[in-house]
Amino acid sequence: MALTENRAVLDWIDQMAAMTRPDQIVWIDGSQEQLEQLRAQACSTGELEKLNEEKLPGCYLHRTAVNDVARVEDRTFICCKKQEDAGPTNNWMDPQEMYAKLKKLYTGAMQGRTMYVIPYSMGVVGSPFAQYGIELTDSIYVVLNMCIMTRVGKQVLEALGDSPDYVKGLHAKADIDPENRYIVHFPEDNTIMSVNSGYGGNVLLGKKCFALRIASYLGRKQGWMAEHMLILGIQNPQGEVRYLAAAFPSACGKTNLAMLIPPAIYKEKGWKVWCVGDDIAWLRVGEDGRLWAMNPEYGFFGVAPGTNEKSNPNALHTTQAGTIFTNVVHNLDDNTVWWEGLDKNPPANAVDWKGNPWNGQTSQEKGAHPNSRFTAPAKNCPCISPEFENPQGVPISAIVFGGRRAKTAPLVYQSRDWEHGVFVGSIMASETTAAATGAVGVVRRDPMAMLPFCGYHMGDYWQHWLDMGKVLGDKAPKIFNVNWFRTDDEGHFIWPGFGDNLRVLEWIMKRCFSEADAAQTPIGYEPLPQDINLEGSGVDLDTLKGLLSVDKDLWRQEVDGIRDFYGKFGDKLPKTLSDQLSQLEENLK
Ligand code: GTP
Ligand code: SPV
Ligand code: MN
Questions:
Q1: Rounded to an integer, what is the distance from CA 474 to the centroid of its chain?
Q2: Contacts of 158 (CB under 8 A, 6+ apart)
Q3: CATH of the domain spanning 227-298+388-587, picked from 3.90.228.20, 3.10.450.50, 3.10.450.40, 3.30.1330.130
Q4: Pocket probe mutation, ligand 1, options 202, 227, 256, max atoms within 8 Å of Cβ
Q5: Whose CA is closest to atom 24 on ligand 1?
Q6: pTM of the full predicted structure?
Q7: Whose CA is nearest to atom 12 of ligand 1?
Q8: Which of 57, 117, 128, 268 would you call most buried, defined as having the most Cβ atoms within 10 angstroms of its Cβ?
């Protein structure tokens, strides 16, 4: 039975059902009884496997199709009326043409299946900054994941009332055919259509599709920003909590930084870190003129490999109950899960991510997919911020950009001002990871970590950043860039990373409150080496100096790469940014 009388919602569902022809329609009300019944049903068909109830209460394992393990950027489209509004970094097709193409793929796609109606909220239900969506899907896995990642149920429909202002999302697994896989956004129609995939980022439509691609488009129109950023609070020994938001590309350390555990010498002094969000931030100018950030999500869809008791105990703890694991190893001895980097003792009696028998003691192949994931409730996180449910979000003192660069980018530097900071974000580059299909380890430009997620022209997006800076004026957060991933000649990471990253964040926060000095370099401000606390880090001052070094030759090559990249944007490239590039070139002379 329908859970709303909203005409716009009911008419749209009627149309989608007429096209996809499900056997039945089930509304997700958010109740535990209904979810329990769906879990049981998914277990009966093998879509989910129930894990050890003592060791991993309420946890399940799922395997996707082998050809369907990551976001598909080459099959992701922004379909607005004019191609120039999508810009050179997005795939585009005329909306009418795309609707027609998709119609063929969706027609009858849910025959013999159930269509689930998921009313969900991005943000606290009823808050002035929440946005609502409805996802129609024929996948129980999607329903259960959406119920962890977003706020789902009747209360969303009540908050929406009879308003037509919601994001429509249609997902059909169809045949999981990679040749006919499409992840399509119609920003002008508030609509998302996803077909032929069952992988998280392609099908949990509240996440990248809505909260970044559609929301970035809405944010530009309405004067706010949707960013691929974690949000965290750093509590110093005086008890003050200062917040930062950080944009790193996929699988470059957001979840890990967001749940950071301070090194022993920091803990002893009383430092704490609070996680507000690990992937997406919606930012707006508050009544006090400062920039405020809220996390529209309700859970974490995190990278499993590499997560362990040492690198990130908070993340590991977060996944020990009520979690869905996707494409990890199934340990048959005790019906638990394993992945590369969990511990040094891979199970011998196990099943790998493809569903084949796997002996971790002898196999040369990886057991878990490099992009295997956990979907875990935010409330499980031991360091979840007390402000997590605050509809206003938190005030941001620093914005941090960063990527995976073996060379070139130093451990940390600060921009000279907001405009220079926007330049620093726009020239971000990072080695590609397993989070998207395609080659791994190739350096590519990924401005603000938004290359795959910006729902409109990247040149307009940069202008929007510059405009936001004008509104914020002297209340604007300070902007920084970090790189935890510099390597030595043997390819080993030089900086210990993880908890030790707090040493860098401490300096960043001090800069925001005029409590630390800095040195000028051609690319911006850097810490005086003695101002980074290295006690207990195992890093000596010379190594740190190396990590902070700016190699002018490499940076001159960088300038050439940036100029090529900027060339794509034609007259949509803000003049401020081309001026910044000239300034950088000048500084390197
Ligand atoms: P998405 O969920 O794809 O957006 O990824 P993310 O940005 O949240 O990345 P995540 O924190 O999951 O980290 C991805 C990988 O980077 C994991 O394998 C981590 O172990 C590794 N990693 C994270 N932080 C650090 C760090 O400080 N140093 C090093 N060397 N590796 C790190
Ligand atoms: C990312 O790739 O940045 C993720 C995972 O956070 S996904 O939801 O697949 O986009
Ligand atoms: Mn992400």
A1: 29
A2: none
A3: 3.90.228.20
A4: 256
A5: 253
A6: 0.98
A7: 303
A8: 117
